[in-house]
Amino acid sequence: MSLPQLPSGRTVEVRAVDGVKLHAQVFGPEDGYPIVLAHGITCAIEVWAHQIADLSGDYRVIAYDHRGHGRSETPRSRNRYSLNHLAADLDAVLDATLKPGEHAVIAGHSMGGIAITSWSQRYPNRVRSCADAVALINTSTGDLLRDVQLAQVPARLTATRIRTAGTVLRTFGSTRMPKMAEGPNKRFVAQLAVGRDAEPWVADFVYQLFAATPPAGRGAWTRVLVDNLGPKHISLRNLTVPTLVIGSAKDRLLPINASRRIAADAPNLAGFVELGGGHCAILERPDDVNAQLRSLAESVTAAQRIS
Questions:
Q1: Which uninterrupted H or E stretch holds 105?
Q2: For residue 110, which phi and psi values (nearest 5 degrees)?
Q3: How far apart are CA 70 and CA 92, in angstroms?
Q4: Taking Cα atoms as reference points, which of 9, 128, 117 lies closest to residue 59?
Q5: Which of 97, 21, 17, 29 is nearest to 63 (CA)?
Q6: Residue 189, Cα to own-chain centre: how many angstroms?
Q7: Can you say whether the dihedral through the CA atoms of 112, 114, 115, 116 is positive or negative?
Q8: With 0-12 CB in 10 A as exposed, 13-18 as middle and 19+ as buried, what is 71?
Q9: Which neighbouring-strand residues pair with 34?
Q10: Residue 5 and residue 176: Cα distance in Å, rounded?
Q11: Residue-level pLDDT, tens digit, the chain, 307 residues
Q12: Boundaries of each AB hydrolase-1 domain copy (predicted)?
């Protein structure tokens, strides 16, 4: 399997509440039921290629680049990156791409899932007016540094491991990627983001996306996540729509226990799916993810037809 080519789509330029320009694309039939896709940190719209190629045959698929990623604007000031911005940007995309009164299935991978939960915490009325269901894939609501598996250490050294992990992630996230250091950098990214049994092209593609993300953007978002996803978790209280949770058994960046916690805390759990592979289930297990997203969309549209 390899990465499919993106189908032709329509570009939508979205203006965030603070004026930052966000890049979004719409694929598939204009009258199709909408599925919105929010990618993870250091990725871009193209990371959803498997899902877009499959789902856009039947649905209107909307994908966007977070600020500091892809073709969206990269603010230079650190104070223009926060969980508030992450939530507000998702809301701006929904406002610009959904028709009046229209609802969607909203799916997020990794930081994209954090965008959804942050949005639900800050915009509860918009959850009810925009979402029929959500899918949270390889994501977390807290305890980021406690969960991330950079190295195995004795329990008595857990606090040291957490501090070290924070330093490593903040530093590496904002570092420029010189060609001469590509080998070790690629291995480090693959160690965190890709399962050991993934096809080689997956690790190469994930590193290409990482290296192409502006250091200012990935560095700022790394700090936001490290500094905010601590012991106090993002509340799921307002996420009252059907919620699909997908985790991966060998995810070293956001391990499966993070997905299990979300499934346990979700007020309206539609399903919990544990896949094999590493952090990038949308690339490593695309057929499984596609089937789950189709099933979720079909369940809400079927319920609407009955009602």
A1: strand 104-109
A2: 55, -115
A3: 17
A4: 9
A5: 97
A6: 16
A7: positive
A8: middle
A9: 60
A10: 28
A11: 789 999 999 999 999 999 999 999 999 999 999 999 999 999 999 999 999 999 999 999 999 999 999 999 999 999 999 999 999 999 999 999 999 999 999 999 999 999 999 999 999 999 999 999 999 999 999 988 776 655 444 444 345 445 545 555 555 455 555 554 467 777 878 888 899 999 999 999 999 999 999 999 999 999 999 899 889 999 999 999 999 999 999 999 999 999 999 999 999 999 999 999 999 999 999 999 999 999 999 999 886 777 6
A12: 33-286
Q: Which of 97, 94, 101, 81 lies closest to 123, judged by CA? A: 94
Sign of CA dihedral 88, 33, 139, 6: negative
Residue 125: exposed, middle, or buried by beta-carbon count in 10 A (0-12, 13-18, 19+)?
exposed
Amino acid letter at 64? Y
Residue entry with tokens 């319920």: 303
Q: Walk me through the domains of the chain, giving residue ranges and CATH numbers.
A: 9-305 (3.40.50.1820)
Q: What angle, rounded to 10 degrees, do the helices at 182-193 and 200-212 form?
A: 110
Tokens of 299: 């369940």
Q: Are 168 and 150 in contact (CB under 8 A)?
A: yes
Q: How far apart are CA 236 and CA 107, in angstroms?
A: 15
Residue 5: DSSP 8-state: P
Q: What burial class does residue 260 get, using C-beta atoms within 10 Å of its C-beta: 0-12 exposed, 13-18 middle, 19+ buried?
A: middle
Which H or E element spans position 51? helix 49-55
- Give residue for tokens 């050991």: 196
**Could you give the 3-state DSSP secondary structure of residue 283?**
helix
Rounded distance between C-alpha atoms, residue 148 and residue 254, angstroms:
6
